[in-house]
Structures are given as structure tokens and as C-alpha cells.
Amino acid sequence: MTAIEFTTTIEGSADEARIHCMGDLNVRADEAMEAAYAAAAALGASRITLEFEDVGYINSTGIALIVRLLTAARADGRTVRAVGLTPHYRHLFEITRLSDYMEILDDAPIGAAATPGGEGA
């Protein structure tokens, strides 16, 4: 399996920054995730939404990168939520307890309350 390069785009404001993730979230995504968080922080965003609709693969290193982003956000007083996870990755976020530290949603229009997704969300 050939890995698909991980990239991000960021949009938002002081209320919310959205990090649209594309590609495979693995060891090669480290710099892109760090830069995306820095860009969201530079906006002064109080909430960060990670969009996973275009992520095809997340491995254990990718999970660690998300944990690192969550740790930085928590230290900076920001909340984090995730949208667009496949059922497989939603389950993975639940069993790894990432869902204890971030809201997991089916959809979240920018600046709006989102539709909670799945059981227990």
C-alpha cells in the first residue's frame, strides 16, 4: 500500500479554526499537523475542528499526533472536536479514549452547533 501524502488547509477565526485533513495520518504527517495547529493558534481560535472526511488511513503514530494536538490545545485553553470520521475510526477514537477529550460529530458547519454523532456522543 502506497501512503498518500498528508496535507491540511486551515480556515477560521478567533471563534473556530477548521483544520481540513487530507491523506494518510502517519509519521509523515508530523510537520503538517504541527503547522496546522500553529496556524489555528495564530488565529486565536478558541475551538479547533479537525475534519477527517478526506483521511484514508490513520495509524498509531497518527493517533499519537492527534494526542499531541489535544495536549497542546488543552494547555492553551482550546477545545477540539472531530468531524467526518468513518465508523471504523470513530470506534478507534472511542476505544483509545480520544473521544473522552474531544467531541466527535457527524457534521459541524463552521461557527454552528454540530450534530452529535454515534452512541454516547
Can you offer a commentary on this structure?
- It is a single chain.
- Residues 114-121 have low confidence and may be disordered.
- The chain has 3 helices and 6 strands.
- The chain is 31% helix and 33% strand.
- A 6-stranded mixed sheet has the order 1-2-3-4-5-6, with helices on one face.
- It has one domain: STAS domain (Transcription Regulator spoIIAA, 2-Layer Sandwich), CATH 3.30.750.24.
- The radius of gyration is 13 Å and the shape is globular.
- It is an alpha/beta fold.
Given the C-alpha coordinates, what overall shape results?
globular
CATH superfamily: STAS domain
Ends: how far apart? 33 Å
Number of domains: 1
Q: What is the overall number of helices? A: 3
Written as H for each helix and E for each strand, in order along the chain, the element string is EEHEHEHEE
Please compute the radius of gyration using only Cα atoms.
13 Å
**Which parts are unreliable, with pLDDT below 50 for 5 consecutive residues or more?**
114-121
Calculate the mean pLDDT score and round it: 89
Strand content: 25-35%
User: Approximately how much helix is present in the residues?
Assistant: 25-40%
Q: Which properties best describe this structure?
A:
Transcription Regulator spoIIAA, 33% strand, globular, 121 residues, 3 helices, 31% helix
SSE arrangement:
Blueprint: E1 7-12, E2 16-25, H1 30-42, E3 47-58, H2 60-75, E4 79-83, H3 87-95, E5 103-107, E6 115-116
Parallel strand pairs: 2-3, 3-4, 4-5
Antiparallel strand pairs: 1-2, 5-6
